[in-house]
Amino acid sequence: MMLTLLILCICSAAATLHSCPHPNVPENGHIVFDGPSPYAPFTPNTVAKYSCAPGFDKVGGTDERICSPSGSWSGEAPVCAIDVAAGKPAVQSSGNSASSVSRGLCTISDNIQGSWWEVDLLGSYEVHGVSIRLGKQSSHILNIYLIQQNGELRQCDISAYSFVENATVFVICELDRVDKVRVVAESRLHLCEARVFATNAVSSWQCSQSMMDVLGIFEGLCYSASREERADWLGAQRKCLDRGATLPMKMSDISQRGLRAALAASPFQKEFYWIGVSSSLTDWRWADGTTVAEEDADWSNSKILTSNRPEAVVLARLAEWRWIPSAQNVWNSFLCQSKPKSCTFPGVGEAGRVSFSSQTFTIGSFSVYTCEEGYELEGDAERVCEESARWSGDIPRCRKKKCSNVDVWSGGGIVRLLNGTTEYGNEIEYECLSGWKLIGERRRWCQHDGSWSGFAPSCKVVDCERPPSIPNGSVSVALTIYGSVANYTCQDGYRLIGHATVSCGSKGVWEPAIPVCYDIATLRELKTDSAENHAGLAALIVVLGLLLVFAVLRFSRASKSVPICEKPAPPYGAPNVIYAIPSVITNPSDSVVYYAPSAPLTKMELPPHLVSLKPLPSGHFQATMPIGRPLIRPQLPIFAPSPTPSQLLYSFDYEPIYDVPPDVGGKPESPEEENIYEKLPDIRPNL
After folding, report:
1. Measured CA angle at 501 (ends 499, 507), to 5 deg
2. How many Å is the maximal CA-CA distance in the chain?
3. CA 165/CA 148 separation, integer angstroms
4. Cα(212)–Cα(231) distance, rounded to whole angstroms?
5. Which residues does residue 366 pair with via DSSP β-bridges, in sequence order?
6. Contacts with 358 (C-beta within 8 Å, 6 or more apart), sequence order
7. Which of 292, 298, 363, 405 is least surrounded, with the fewest CB atoms within 10 Å of its CB?
8. What Rg, from alpha-carbon coordinates, does the chain have?
9. Phi-psi region of 300 (alpha: psi -120 to 50; beta: other; left: phi over 0)
10. CATH assignment of 209-338?
């Protein structure tokens, strides 16, 4: 039995386990699985471990997620983002070292109310959060603002964060098309770190310039600086061309500002760097031969005219990385301008799948999205790696398919949504109204194709079938369906004990219990004997009670040190009193009551009204009954056994009552109480 129960428990637990779909993977991220299979569906306890592409940092979420038995992944996926504030120009309300934060140093403002620091991201980014670290002289941080191109400010909620000295605090603050970020302090601002994380940025790794130091990506172009290499201007151009690049040319104001800030923050800066501007007889030209417009030039002073000798332009540290002319035959370090070579992983939503035309994600390759069984795609099914090294569009989503609504059921009962929705994998349950029986499957589930499993059940009215006949009586009934009634009557000379009318119940059985017909003469004889025995027993109880009181009073006078409760109880031996042992069980297959006296086992049948039971401290029951002769009455219906072997079963009107026998205490009926035996007609059957 225990083995069977254990197997049932294991099977029940296994039936509730659900597999997990493929977890979502952020753009620029990767995932590996610690489990039996790297493909969906994933079994419970499978671990998904996240990482990011080179140059990207994990922000928020958890590094590992676990497939739970409920079919969902724990925690949230992290975001893979880049610090787009690194190497960007910054200003502050006072002081003169705002850009030093990009070089790993601290900047400090004057002790002025509302001091602030602001960084220009030189582009619009999808910001996910900001992290800052304060120095010991900083006052309390009042606000962090995300500023869009149109000047609109978004205030970050920093109420849940505590900014303490030398502790890096990451603040979740999300907004698209952010151009600037501003940090405002109560008075003095001592800022040692400020990082702005964006997801739609390009990393230096995507520039594929392994022999050079990538300074930054501005307006979709990579700018790299030579390390120890030097060359004249023409030689520098050839070296860039060999690497799929060119000396920087046609740079906008944003790119030139970015270069100045990046070079100022670079720890490997040289004195001069060639760019792609050279002189002609009359003007300055870009490396492709087009004329440099006056507004595109970034001279350190006023415009410099060309000379008769071949010259080119360098970015000079002494000129704060602005333009100055130099003879083309001078050997200098150089910058290269190139396009990114590849995209990163495009990301995939939960329950989604993605395939690629190129596993290296080169520019121009495309990715194709599909969904797992039971899900449908929302969004673009195809994305392209564009020249900016960003994937077109957004990651499409996979949503669970939905089955049709089941508000109306032709079966006429009730339909319940067990999981709250009609999505794939969820169940519905049918229930008929009271008095009706369900025909078919009680539950159906939404399948992967958006249809409900099986067929809708129907409801059929409950039929109790014809009620049973009784000895010495008859039954009349017209219908046997739910709500119908049947009437019982007894033959002459018999008394109906129970309910004369029963009805067909909602469970398909007649209610209440079927009555029986008793012999009236036998009932009258039992009643007479019971009355005499009750009178004698009452007198005996009174005498015993007086003797007990007398003995207690006398003993209490003789010795007050012994409690009354410690005196031995008077022996039981009154006439007509026997002891019923609970271990001797009432036979559940008939209506005979068994008693276990000290004498041999006696079998007697009495109406419950004539028996009085009283529990004793020893665990026995004291049963008081009249002396009668064994009687045989018609066989009664079989009832369910007692719930526990230690319970006595008493049956009256065929309704079992446990542990509370009638007339507990043995008191005779009061004259006011209804006595069914006094109403018996004086009729005896012919013997």
Report:
1. 95
2. 154
3. 29
4. 14
5. 384
6. 365
7. 405
8. 48
9. alpha
10. 3.10.100.10
DSSP 631: -
Q: How far is CA 667 from CA 54, 537, 612, in A?
A: 94, 10, 8
Pick the CATH number of 85-198 from 3.40.630.30, 3.40.50.1820, 2.30.130.40, 2.60.120.260: 2.60.120.260
Strands 333-338 and 272-279: parallel
Nearby residues of 611 by Cβ (< 8 Å), 6 or more positions away: 593, 623, 624, 625, 661, 662, 663
Contact 315, 263 (CB under 8 A): yes
- Which residue ranges of the chain lie beneath pLDDT 70? 1-17, 35-38, 97-104, 407, 523-687
Give phi and psi for 657, each to the nearest 5.
Answer: -130, 130
3-state class (DSSP) for residue 390: coil
CA-based nearest residue to 198, from 165, 174, 227, 169: 174
Cα 524 from Cα 531, distance rounded (Å): 11
> What does the CA dihedral 263, 265, 267, 273 come to, rounded to 10 degrees?
10
| Measured distance CA(121)–CA(127) in Å, rounded | 11
Q: What's the N-to-C CA distance of the chain in angstroms?
A: 55
d(CA 48, CA 356): 22
Instruction: Specify whether the CB–CB gap between 138 and 190 falls below 8 A.
Output: yes
Q: What letter does residue 36 receive in the DSSP assignment?
A: S
Q: How far apart are CA 544 and CA 617, in angstroms?
A: 19
Asked whether the domain spanning 414-461 has the same topology as the one spanning 209-338, the reply is no
* Pairing mode of beta strands 458-461, 436-439: antiparallel
- What is the spatial distance between Cα 220 and Cα 201, in angstroms, rounded to a whole number? 9
Here the tokens at position 275 are 């760019």
Residue 686, phi then psi, degrees to nearest 5: -70, 125
CA distance 661 to 460: 41
H/E stretch holding 222: strand 221-225
| Strand partners of residue 501 | 487
Output phi, psi for 523, to 5 deg: -65, -40
Q: Beta partners for 385?
A: 391
> Are 272 and 315 within 8 A, CB to CB?
yes
pLDDT score recorded for residue 267:
82
- What tokens appear for 429 in the block? 């349950």
Helix (H, G, I), strand (E, B) or coil at 616: coil
Beta strands in 6-163 (DSSP E): 29-34, 47-52, 57-59, 64-66, 79-83, 90-92, 107-108, 116-134, 141-148, 153-155
CA atoms of 671 and 56, how far apart (whole Å): 96
Q: What is the CATH number of domain 414-461?
A: 2.10.70.10
Confidence at residue 5, expressed as pLDDT on a 0 to 100 scale: 36
CA 94 to chain centre: 50
- The string of pLDDT tens digits covering residues 252-308 is 999 999 999 999 888 888 999 999 999 988 899 999 999 999 899 999 887 787 777
